[in-house]
Amino acid sequence: MSDAIRFQDQVVIVTGAGGGLGRAHALLFAKHGAKVVVNDLGGSTNGEGANASAADKVVAEIRAAGGEAVANHDSVTDGSKIVQCALDSFGGIDVVVNNAGILRDKSFHKMEDADWDLVYKVHVEGAYKVTRAAWEHLREQQYGRVIFTASTSGIYGNFGQSNYGMAKLGLYGLTRTLAIEGRKNNVLVNAIAPTGGTRMTEGLIPPQVFEQLKPELVSPLVVYLGSNQCQDTGGLYEVGGGWMGKVRWERSLGAGFDPKTGFSPEDVADSWKQIGDFEGAAHPDDNVTALREMMANLQKHAG
Ligand SMILES: NC(=O)c1ccc[n+]([C@@H]2O[C@H](COP(=O)([O-])OP(=O)(O)OC[C@H]3O[C@@H](n4cnc5c(N)ncnc54)[C@H](O)[C@@H]3O)[C@@H](O)[C@H]2O)c1
After folding, report:
1. Second CATH level (architecture) for the domain 250-303
2. Would you say the CB of residue 41 lies under 6 angstroms from ligand 1?
């Protein structure tokens, strides 16, 4: 049995924590002793309006259960204000959970710039602004945990979600590089692709499944990733309904051609099966291992 996970004297920011998954994360962090900044603008699922009561209610719930929390009503696009709120209220910051999000679903031929831009702004720019403002504190104190919220719609694609999928997989790209940059300062960065029954998925998931996909079933993973027990970084985890698993890249060993003599599109066509053959595939974990087969091909044809 692992040691109990406690966040004694640790400060956690959860963005978009006024409802859905973020609320469940905030409640569980507080239950484990964290001081929580409950951030939420309180807008609609499509990113309109604002309402302070969403965050305030969650703070009241945490306090009623004996926990510590403050509300923050800034947009994640004003990330430095949220980080400042953590510093002013609790004197520090240890964990950032980037969770705030909206939807502007439309098939691509109907996509308008405003839908594309707003989804980018909340998910990508918002997560960037909050994390960027927290980053120097985490680096300086040689401790930090950052969690980004991706989506299976980004990993696999989903009809009507080109803007959302772009933003969500973009956050995994951000996770990969921040994991590399943060590692030496003990700032560990991971991403989740959750599924939960929230207002965002209401009507999209069949009602009986929706009921079973309680947001609370996602939070234990998030709290673990936010704890000092977690020593992994750069991971992507699908999670929901009481199940979770890790995602990794897989790339075929591919086909090599002679770079000096050159090769034609027909040569590519002739090797198409081999290019897509995943027998004995590689699972590159960094740029160096990703380039290994290419470098081997250059070496094979050198001289
Ligand atoms: N529910 C799912 O199945 C699912 C699947 C994949 C990814 N996600 C992601 O999980 C996260 C949480 O989603 P949810 O399902 O709990 O939806 P939700 O709508 O219940 O929660 C999102 C919260 O973010 C807040 N928010 C929106 N814009 C904000 C901004 N600019 N600043 C601060 N707060 C803002 C909203 O007010 C809301 O409370 C989102 O990033 C979402 O994209 C959810």
Report:
1. Orthogonal Bundle (1.10)
2. yes
